[in-house]
């Protein structure tokens, strides 16, 4: 299926094709929810999404996978090397690193602002030294680079029916909403890495601090104060989803099913956390496969409807011919 995507995107250079395929494999392995949603995009747009998320995944892996404590210097050196490679790749369009090569090509094809990548790298470097956040304002400053810019990078690929500036705040909010969802789901895992992304003032308002979280993680015991804090963080996150929601209708019709599916699936993680009793310090909450399949089927139906409308409009001479549809096998693979 990679060959079909690359052919549709007009990517013919063998080295560049392998670079994009490398990014796709990264996403398939690490980003199950968004990889599923990406399958709903027209095939010619998928390689760009894989490049953007592949790069983000690679940088995030540098921050997390090399350990903590004594390894900070090594991770800092790895990120510095990546920043240099990124700068050279964006300038020259070439790189020995497959992920950077694909990213640079995507940035050129879609005219993505290079400042978004610089802001992202700044956020990644802060993860080496910042282990908690005093309040939500501080967390939002971090998430500008770690999440909001991801939405902004995606916007040129997805396309809009409004001017891009109008859609941009909603795209940024959606990136933040997705990351907040991950923060809630991964409280225990992040704590093991030495990080607490839940704002300290929110925790304190419910009588919770890092030590209390550590106690619960280590002992497996529950505390109603922690549950109350986690519930408050869930409410905060749902508020950001509401800020993002108007942006769905601002996207090109062929892109809406993909982003709506991601919107619903990530929101489903919040539902799973709540249904699991906010036990995120002890286990990861997941959206049941049956639910994922239902959402995927709905996304496919929306794609089919969008294609039908596009064909009708094209027949009237008011719109270009529709783009290629996703594969019907998608729901079978999820179920």
Question: How is the secondary structure organized here?
Answer:
Layout: H1 2-9, H2 14-30, H3 32-38, H4 46-65, H5 72-92, H6 98-110, H7 114-126, H8 136-158, H9 164-185, H10 187-192, H11 200-205, H12 210-219, H13 224-244, H14 256-275, H15 289-315, H16 329-334
Offer a concise description of the structure.
This protein has 335 residues and is mainly alpha-helical. It has 16 helices and no strands.
Task: Write a structural description.
Residues 316-335 are annotated as: Disordered. Pathway: Carotenoid biosynthesis; phytoene biosynthesis. With 335 residues, this protein is mainly alpha-helical. The protein contains 16 helices and no strands. Helix 2 (14-30) packs across helix 6 (98-110) and helix 13 (224-244) runs antiparallel to helix 14.
Question: Total number of helical segments?
Answer: 16
Q: Radius of gyration, rounded?
A: 20 Å
Q: Which segments are poorly predicted (pLDDT under 50) over 5 or more consecutive residues?
A: 319-335
Structural class: mainly alpha
Share of helical residues: over 70%
Structural shape: globular
Average pLDDT confidence is 88
Largest sheet: none
End-to-end CA span: 19 Å
Strand-residue fraction? under 5%
Number of DSSP-assigned strands: 0
What is the ordering of alpha helices and beta strands? HHHHHHHHHHHHHHHH
Essential attributes:
335 residues, mainly alpha, 72% helix, 0% strand, Phytoene/squalene synthase family protein
């Amino acid at each position: 299926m990679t060959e079909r995507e690359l052919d549709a995107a007009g990517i013919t250079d063998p080295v560049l094709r392998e670079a994009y395929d490398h990014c796709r494999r990264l996403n398939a392995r690490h980003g199950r929810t968004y990889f599923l949603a990406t399958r709903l995009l027209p095939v010619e747009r998928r390689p760009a999404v894989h490049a953007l998320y592949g790069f983000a995944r690679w940088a995030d892996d540098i921050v997390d996978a090399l350990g903590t404590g004594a390894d900070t210097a090594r991770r800092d050196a790895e990120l510095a090397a990546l920043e240099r490679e990124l700068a050279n790749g964006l300038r020259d369009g070439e790189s020995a690193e497959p992920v950077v090569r694909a990213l640079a090509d995507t940035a050129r094809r879609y005219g993505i602002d290079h400042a978004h990548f610089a802001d992202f790298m700044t956020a990644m470097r802060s993860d080496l030294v910042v282990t908690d956040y005093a309040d939500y304002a501080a967390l939002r400053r971090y998430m500008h680079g770690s999440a909001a810019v991801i939405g902004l990078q995606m916007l040129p690929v997805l396309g809009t029916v409004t001017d891009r500036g109008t859609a941009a705040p909603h795209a940024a909010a959606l990136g933040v909403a997705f990351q907040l969802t991950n923060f809630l789901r991964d409280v225990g895992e992040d704590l093991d890495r030495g990080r607490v992304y839940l704002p300290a003032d929110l925790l304190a308002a419910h009588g919770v601090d890092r030590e209390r979280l550590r106690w619960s993680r280590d002992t497996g015991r529950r505390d109603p104060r922690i549950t109350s804090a986690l519930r408050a963080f869930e409410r905060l996150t749902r508020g950001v989803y509401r800020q993002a929601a108007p942006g769905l209708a601002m996207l090109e019709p062929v892109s809406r099913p993909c982003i709506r599916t991601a919107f619903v699936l990530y929101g489903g993680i919040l539902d799973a956390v709540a249904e699991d009793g906010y036990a995120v310090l002890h286990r990861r909450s997941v959206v049941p496969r049956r639910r994922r399949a239902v959402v995927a089927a709905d996304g496919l139906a929306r794609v089919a409807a969008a294609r039908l409308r596009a064909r009708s409009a094209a027949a009237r001479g008011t719109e270009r011919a529709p783009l290629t549809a996703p594969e019907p096998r998608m729901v079978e693979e999820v179920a």
